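Hey, can you fold this one?
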Amino acid sequence: RIDATLAKPATQAQVEQAVNSVAAQLQPSIQSESGNQFSIRTLPTSLEEEQLIVNKIGDDFGYAKDAKGAPIVQTQTVGPTIATDLVRKAILLVILSSVLISVYLAVRFRTQTISRWRFSVATLFKLLHDVFVLAGIWAVIGHFSSIAEVDTLFVTAILTSVSFSIHDTIVVFDRIRENLRTGPRLTFDQIVNLSTVQTMTRSLNTALTVTFVLFALVLFGGSSIRGFVLALLIGIVTGTFSSIFNASTLLIAWQSIDRERPGAQPQGPRRVQTKARAAS
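Sure. Predicted structure:
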């Protein structure tokens, strides 16, 4: 990647033509920014080919200079070793954050009707679902566009999406816990459905507010943050979907498996323990 501020006014087409004349085989992608700044991204290349592009742009348009008289041009190269280390650290961060969140939920959510570890495990699988969906969509986009790069901003987008998604999940699970304590004569499946409906409006309103802002940034924001914002947008949309439809469904599926086991007691409607009944 080459970031440069040119001395002569130039259009994106002119810079693209100059770069293609010396490095068309690298499939360069040119993005123009304010202040006659340009960002050039190519396939992995050698230092000689990279310097050839820098020299060609300097010869055709010249580079603006900073206060010290140095040309304003910066090159960044991500090699296989750096990329592998980045992926390894990203996986470690995602697993660590998911496990810590699951342990917190196991400590925080205690009910007499369902084991607290079921909330924790359901949350863990839900978080992994969010990460895998975002990574899969990002890989498909990266096959057709250079905007989908796996860098530190993408890792930040994953962790931010996970934190936003778990917030909605905790809201749903907390309502399930409260309804299990004070709910009407309902089965566990009905209580989960009631809790999801009660929190759906709040979850959708919050997600749509953030989605509209991120969508505007994708369309009108700078090219330097477009990839990060797009990844964040995809993560929040898929995370909201999984918070409403996946997390609580896992609880119901787990509870249904227990009811189908031999010797399991059939589940009937839950009754609210009133003072009159306790007195009797």
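The chain has nine helices and four strands. Let me know if you want another pass with a different chain boundary.
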